Amino acid sequence: MLLSMDNILILAHEDPDGDAVGSACGLCRGLRSLGKTAYVSLEHMSKHMTFLTDGIVKDDYSPDYIVAVDTAERKMLGVAKTNIPKDCRVDLAIDHHYSNSMFAENTCLDENAAAAAEVVTYILRIMNAAFTKETAQAIYVGVSTDTGCFRYSNTKAKTLRIAADMADLGADIGEINKLQFETKTREYAKLEKMALSSMELFLNGKLAVIAVTNDMYVQSGVDDSETKPLSSLTRQIEGVLVGVTLREKKKGTFNISVRTNEGVDASEIAGFFSGGGHKNAAGGKFQGSLKDAVDAIVLHTEEILGKTGRI
Amino acid sequence: MLLSMDNILILAHEDPDGDAVGSACGLCRGLRSLGKTAYVSLEHMSKHMTFLTDGIVKDDYSPDYIVAVDTAERKMLGVAKTNIPKDCRVDLAIDHHYSNSMFAENTCLDENAAAAAEVVTYILRIMNAAFTKETAQAIYVGVSTDTGCFRYSNTKAKTLRIAADMADLGADIGEINKLQFETKTREYAKLEKMALSSMELFLNGKLAVIAVTNDMYVQSGVDDSETKPLSSLTRQIEGVLVGVTLREKKKGTFNISVRTNEGVDASEIAGFFSGGGHKNAAGGKFQGSLKDAVDAIVLHTEEILGKTGRI
Fold first, then answer.
1. In this complex, is the C-beta atom of A179 within 8 Å of any C-beta atom belonging to chain B?
2. How many contacts does A have with B, using Cβ atoms within 8 A?
3. Whole-number average pLDDT of chain B
């Protein structure tokens, strides 16, 4: 299907993470190696990832074929920079979210893939696309970031082999890891310290909540796009089943990141906050005061844990 | 050589890290699969790793053949629990430290291997040893811990492929990662917060020093064997070329962990403190006050950075 198409625009979800950017750029470069015209448009991307998009971004492009990568639902589609409406026809979705709502005309979904970039790799291989160094870099960023650099339980043998193949194809895995996982600005380190100090435990230590307020952003000088790594801090405390990080986007609006252990369904908890995602990692939104947000999180987490006899 | 030997004792360096334990246990189990009698003896091991040693430890064993894994120098050999003297004849060293002093009768050294467990894997394959689940778990712990779960620049395509092979052979990579990299006791989280607060920057932000004092251990209730992850915190700050973590073993005695970026030689700095190690990660010791330790670190780091025009 994709093989017969041309003039392709690739979109991903809003606030694109490494897998959204990596799978979009990897796909775009792979399609170009087949002689096609293809572009990406990405909304509000972290500055750590601009090295992947060099020469392939076109926000005002009018395509013949639209592909959405790593996007589970239509409302999550990041189109703000384009002249394409949010309810546009999406011709193909390439995804790995088991919660994918099948919003596209065609969907290529592998919910066992650790990253959308893994699915993109299989598709490019089937199409006999060439993997340049740039493609390999993009795919590597996708699989490494969505697995927390191969730490999370979604990492499989095949994920590690794709990473190895991308290294052989020229991906600078050491440099990429350093940039994505091992570099904190001094400002971020300051924010992390404040965020850690805000951590509170509830429900006998089974729920940990971190709140990053507007004040903390101002005090530390950190941009919100840098703060995704904070989400993983909560889950690391021994005994914690549910870790929630609140990030105040603007006064009274919070992004909610849910991380879970031992089979607790993160997407079910995020569902209470107009969100969704994976079993172990999901996100949502809340409008109101911080206190109300925390109260709601404790309430719904207690409900979910209670339902499965974990409390 | 090893193939014709029997009644083998495997030793590693003192305070064995994941690679020391993993390569020792992997080798031991592989040798046993060939019908040999083999044991390990390990000194002061982290409790996170006891699942690897089940049934293969014998501290009072009198072997016919002694193998040292992951040990660069004779003085680092962990023999305290055995009835073997520190200056014993070591028949075979299996290692990946480029600083290996060739103290053993025979040495199998691959300084391009990310972990000693990688070298052990090649040896077991050549010997046609069977890889049971237990062997795979041990090898996986070795390669994953010495690469910071595949983050550090020593990670190569072949390292990722060995990890993938071990996953296929039954290693519970998700569980192991959770245990080794994603689990902090509440006590450790408290200590980490204190350690981060102690971080000081020197030499225009090129050197970061963290000091974990005896008081912090007492206040947090953390055992020293849990604190190795602290060493990686310093290097993560943007602009830091040398990160040093001091851990007070007993009043007035400090373990020094050096981590470096951008080609600064960590083992050269550790050399000033009767230590050694790798290009990016090394360790040493200091006796004296904390202030004297920090002064010495600043002085020697300035010297090393100055020599290569980095200051």
1. no
2. 107
3. 92
Residues forming beta bridges with residue A39, ordered by sequence position? A9
Contact B236 A163 (CB under 8 A): no
Which residue in the set A156, A161, A236 is minimally distant from B182, CB to CB?
A236
Q: Which chain A residues have a beta carbon less than 8 Å from that of B158?
A: 164
pLDDT of residue B222: 84
How many Cβ atoms are within 10 Å of A111's Cβ, its own excluded?
Answer: 13
- Give the type of residue at B3: L
Shortest CB distance from B183 goes to which of A181, A186, A236?
Answer: A236
Chain A neighbors of B197, CB-CB under 8 A: 193
Mean pLDDT value of segment A235-245: 89
Q: Name the E strands within chain A.
A: 8-11, 38-41, 65-69, 92-95, 106-109, 200-202, 207-212, 242-250, 253-260, 276-277, 281-287
Residue A179, number of CB atoms within 10 A of its CB: 14
Contact A142, A170 (CB under 8 A): no
Q: How confident is the model at residue A195 (pLDDT cuts 50, 70, 90)?
A: confident
Q: Would you call A150 an interface residue with chain B, using a CB distance cutoff of 8 Å?
A: yes
Exposed e or buried b for every residue in B171-198, given b needs 16+ CB within 10 A?
Answer: bbbbebbbebbbbbbbbbbbbbebbbee
Rounded Cα gap, residues B235 and B199, in angstroms:
11
Closest CA relative to residue B171, chosen from B180, A122, B47, B116: B180
pLDDT at B107: 97
> What does the DSSP assignment read for B169-209?
TT--HHHHHHHHHS-B-HHHHHHHHHHHHT-EEEGGGTEEE
Residue A92 has pLDDT above 80, yes or no: yes
The token pair at A257 is 């990141």
Beta bridge partners of A253: A250, A287
Which of A112, A160, A198 best probes binding to B when mutated, by most B CB atoms within 10 angstroms? A160
Predicted pLDDT of residue B170: 97
- In this prediction, the residues of chain B whose per-residue pLDDT falls under 70 are 225
Q: What is the mean pLDDT of chain A?
A: 92
What DSSP element (H or E) covers B8?
strand B8-11
Whole-number pLDDT of residue B229: 76
Encoded tokens for B126: 């050549």
Residue B163, H or E segment: helix B157-168
**What is the spatial distance between Cα A268 and Cα A277, in angstroms, rounded to a whole number?**
9
CB atoms within 10 A of CB B254: 26
Side chain identity at B77, as an amino acid letter? L
Closest chain B residue by Cα to residue A186:
B237
What contacts B303, CB < 8 A, 6 or more positions away?
Answer: none
Among the listed residues B178, B150, B185, B192, the one whose alpha carbon sits nearest the alpha carbon of residue A260: B178
Residue A60, C-beta contacts closer than 8 angstroms, at least 6 positions apart:
A82, A83
Choice between A98 and A128, residue whose per-residue pLDDT is larger: A128
Q: Which residue of A has its CA nearest to B168?
A: A157
Task: Determine whether the interchain pair A197/B193 forms a contact, defined as Cβ–Cβ distance below 8 Å.
Answer: yes
Q: Name the nearest CA neighbour of B258 among B272, B45, B100, A183.
A: B272
Max intra-chain CA distance, chain B:
58
- Element spanning B245, H or E: strand B242-250
